[in-house]
Design goal:
heterodimer; A: 231 residues; mainly alpha; Ferritin; 8 helices; B: Nucleotidyltransferase, domain 5; Nucleotidyltransferase, domain 5; 3 domains; 18% strand; binds fe (ii) ion
Chain lengths: 231, 578
């Protein structure tokens, strides 16, 4: 049981990440002006959708064996792609980034994804059926990485491979930074929770005395109520 | 031009209405973000409305948000504050997320659409539902509106009398937290399905249950109608939705009904837990029908009306509509094609229109079922390489493509469609559908399992023309419009062959679609009928868990990800290369 409890979040988060990549690629596909690029993004999105499906399947296998209370916490709700930060509230990457940065982002992250799958591979065992599935996902990621690299060098021939290297280092640092930031945020959150709760308790005590009856609508013409009121 | 928007607490969307009261365009955010049930500020939808219709911000006279943000917030906080300290998590969550709630609607407009924030007004949540429904009614006067949902900005159900669009008097309401919608969602959650998505599954499951079973009776007792005060009542100790962010039901409900279902377990007819779950679903369905009958009876009593608009999430409970139509005082029930919260953007846009026009000159045109215009984009060019690599054209000319699609359907094949504009509501009515011969058991089964991965206890809807429907089903004239948007189920005629159709549910009902004249399905059926096929099985074009396809790329993607081989599009009929 302990093993399952520790594994569930890994598959849950990875499935989110893969589905988010699929949506990013689909968005890029719809926004490009080049039919060739559209095909590239389309095929890439399809791969990512398949990866997400694989991880959801692996999640489900473990969810079934977990206690109901725990399993309920790992149900997938699509809007959590946004609330968990896998898709930015500000929009898809292609909407926010310059094309060059976007491709560099893909280039780096595919490689980072592949390396994070190494850990999962150890977890499920290389020789298992799941292991084989993950290995094939890893080779997809490597292919995506290669494609992005080729695309990058084709479109920006003036750029040297060492410059790509810099992009990669930058993204790696960013990624690490995100993780540290996330961990700090969680730590801070734990630290501040008692304070938040105390404040909520105080606010709740005031809210108890709120009388919302005067805002009732009974016997009123709804069309005559002020359209500027937020209450 | 007027814009209405929804979002934050429920699915987001945006609608565009012109000065003549015509719905020009409508878009759900999930269609564009491809995140099902997307609740974020509908930035993409608004952008799309502006772009597709060549509008600038200064062309927009007013924008309405579909509910009163502070009211929604305060009602939840007030209720939770009565249950401290148990509700402390919910309260903390509410306060911490205050700036992300709909209160920030004004700020989001200021951030993403500078200038629109100054034109922002607010409608009541249930008024937005009412106006959406009213738009789809032929007559706009002397009609009663019944709204039943989870929770809006103050109540969970209401009855209003519409004298005319400028005078809509609210006569009854059910205050939060007693809520038929949230009760149904809690049972959905208890049965392991996702809230706001799994309710259809509960409804389908209920047909396998027994109303006389102990469990059904226990669930049936969780809420009631108090005839002396004309109030809906509920024993709130079984529910936690008003005091918790993570649990909709309490441990007391588990003590009553047994353990909740593991969401990862598949529910298959014949399994050990299946009958228990079906009986619980049956109880929820029986209670819903019982309470809706009480609400409608009360609505008739206080308004004297025999014609009803019905909207809010609970009105999507299509199998209760047939029961409502049988009540002696009902002459007509109208349900809009998108009666849930996403559809409220339409009502909100009409609210702007009504607020901006002199009341002597009010027009509201009945909207089309397919108002969602395509994005401005050259699909032919964009998809050129995708199609070249992954698909072959079977036919390019429209007539030939339809004819070829009809031939394939008659041979037992399944066809996906991405045609013209997309549907308003959650039900695919032909333009974003998966179709096959509705009497072919093998084809229907393949559509459900191989392509859609639907729960085995959920039936697929049959679509046909009115003349055909009459031969097989007990149609009720009071809800004839509901059949056009798949909003109501109906019984098969007694001893009728339709009882054997693969689209007929285990309880002898079907959620039929009567096809509108001149629609894509009408055209397809006109070619299919000479081939001996008069009924199509119709399901939405998507992979389960995803939103219904919106554009051609989405359709091509579904084809690529599933075993679907054929796609009927505006460019022609495509076949996926193996
Ligand atoms: Fe991937
Ligand atoms: Fe990848
Ligand atoms: Fe609602």
């Amino acid at each position: 049981m302990k093993k399952i409890i520790s594994e569930l979040p890994i598959f849950y988060e990875t499935a989110h990440a893969e589905l988010a990549s699929a949506l990013e690629m689909l968005a890029a596909c719809k926004r490009t002006n080049s039919p060739r690029q559209a095909l590239g993004y389309f095929m890439h999105a399809k791969d990512e959708y398949n990866h997400a499906r694989s991880f959801f399947k692996m999640l489900s296998v473990r969810g079934k064996r977990a206690s109901i209370k725990i399993a309920r916490d790992f149900r997938f709700k699509p809007p959590s792609l946004i609330t968990k930060g896998y898709i930015s509230k500000q929009g898809f990457l292609i909407e926010k980034m310059k094309l060059k940065d976007f491709i560099a982002f893909v280039y780096t992250n595919e490689l980072l994804a592949k390396s994070s799958f190494e850990n999962i591979l150890t977890l499920v065992g290389r020789r298992t059926e799941e292991g084989a599935e993950i290995s094939s996902i890893m080779s997809d990621e490597l292919r995506h990485h290669g494609m992005a690299k080729k695309h990058f060098l084709n479109h920006y021939p003036a750029l040297q491979p060492w410059q790509l290297m810099i992009y990669r280092i930058r993204e790696t640092i960013n990624n690490k930074g995100r993780k540290i930031y996330d961990a700090n945020l969680k730590f801070l959150d734990r630290l501040l929770t008692p304070l938040y709760k105390t404040m909520a308790y105080l606010a709740g005590t005031i809210a108890k005395k709120l009388n919302l009856n005067e805002f009732q609508r009974k016997d009123k013409n709804l069309m005559n109520i002020s359209s500027n009121s937020i209450l | 031009m007027f814009i209405g928007v929804t979002g934050y607490n429920h699915e987001s969307s945006a609608a565009l209405v012109d000065r003549n009261g015509v719905l020009i365009d409508f878009c759900r955010e999930e269609s564009l973000s491809r995140i099902k049930g997307d609740k974020s500020f509908p930035r993409r939808s608004i952008n799309k409305l502006l772009d597709s219709n060549n509008l600038k911000i200064n062309n927009i006279e007013r924008v309405a948000f579909y509910e009163r943000p502070l009211s929604a917030f305060l009602h939840i906080v007030k209720e939770a504050s009565l249950h401290m300290p148990r509700s402390l998590d919910l309260l903390t969550h509410q306060f911490r997320n205050f700036n992300r709630s709909s209160v920030s609607c004004f700020l989001d407009f200021a951030k993403f659409f500078k200038g629109l924030e100054t034109k922002l007004i607010y409608s009541d949540h249930h008024l937005s539902h009412t106006l959406t429904a009213l738009a789809y009614s032929n007559s706009k006067k002397d009609i009663c509106s019944v709204v039943v949902d989870g929770f809006g900005d103050r109540s969970t159900a209401s009855i209003s009398q519409i004298v005319d669009p400028t005078e809509i008097n609210e006569l009854w309401e059910c205050p939060y937290p007693v809520s038929l919608g949230l009760f149904y969602s809690s049972i959905t959650d208890y049965l392991g399905f996702a809230i706001n998505e799994g309710e259809y599954k509960v409804m389908g499951l209920a047909s396998y249950g027994d109303s006389n079973s102990k469990l059904a009776k226990l669930v049936r007792g969780l809420m009631d109608w108090d005839s002396s005060s004309n109030k809906m009542i509920s024993d709130m100790s079984y529910f936690d939705y008003h005091i918790s962010t993570s649990n909709s039901f309490s441990s007391k409900l588990k003590d009553l009904l047994g353990p909740a279902r593991n969401p990862f377990d598949q529910l298959i007819p014949g399994d050990i837990d299946f009958q228990r779950c079906a009986n619980i679903a049956r109880g929820a369905q029986d209670l819903t029908i019982y309470l809706l009958r009480k609400i409608f009876t009360h609505a008739h009593k206080i308004t004297g009306s025999r014609r009803f608009l019905f909207s809010g999430g609970v009105s999507m409970n299509s199998s209760s509509i047939d029961h409502l139509a049988q009540m002696p005082f009902v002459d007509e029930i109208i349900i809009p094609p998108n009666p849930g919260d996403a559809g409220c953007a339409i009502g909100a846009a009409f609210y702007c229109h009504l607020k901006s026009n002199s009341f002597s000159d009010i027009k509201i045109s009945k909207p089309s079922f397919f108002p969602s215009l395509k994005e401005k984009r050259n699909d032919e060019l964009l998809t050129e390489q995708i199609i070249f690599n992954e698909f072959t054209f079977l036919e390019r000319r429209e007539e030939n493509a339809f004819l070829k699609a009809a031939e394939l359907i008659s041979k037992g094949e399944i066809i996906g469609t991405v045609l013209s504009s997309s549907e308003t509501g959650p039900r695919a009515l032909g333009n974003r559908s998966l179709l096959c011969d509705g009497k072919n058991k093998y084809a229907v089964n393949r559509l459900n399992t191989v392509i859609k991965n639907r729960s085995p206890f959920r039936p697929t809807a049959p679509a046909m023309r009115y003349e055909i429907a009459k031969k097989f089903y007990k149609l009720r004239p009071e809800i004839i419009d509901c059949y056009k948007s798949m909003s109501a189920t109906c019984q098969c005629l007694e001893d009728n062959i339709s009882l054997e159709f693969p689209t007929t549910h285990v309880d002898g009902t079907a959620r039929i679609q009567i096809v509108k004249n001149n629609s894509s399905l009408d055209k397809l059926l006109s070619m299919l009928e000479p081939m001996g096929i008069e009924i199509l099985a119709n399901s939405s074009l998507n992979v389960s868990g995803d939103p219904t396809c919106f554009d051609l790329v989405d359709g091509l993607m579904v084809c690529s990800r599933t075993k679907l081989s054929y796609l009927l599009t505006d460019l022609g009929l495509l076949k996926r290369k193996t």
